[in-house]
Task: structure prediction
Amino acid sequence: MAAVPTFRRGVKFRFDAVRNAWVLLAPEKLFMPDETAVEILKLVDGTRSIDAIVDDLAARFDAPREMIAEDVAATFANLSTRGAVQL
Result:
């Protein structure tokens, strides 16, 4: 996919020392992504396309691109529906 994911206005992705976990903070919402989603979200920089994110993760984890692409698509679809990410 050529879409470039970005965090919606007011959404912050950061490590929360109190929870000792990565979190997505949105107005009146808190998301605690799983390990897979954290690795995906670390690559969201507003310039990298979904395809580039998939390629990076497939190379880094030496995993089949198709499997990574499914996880990435599902993660972005879920977070987009919940208002944290825009595609």
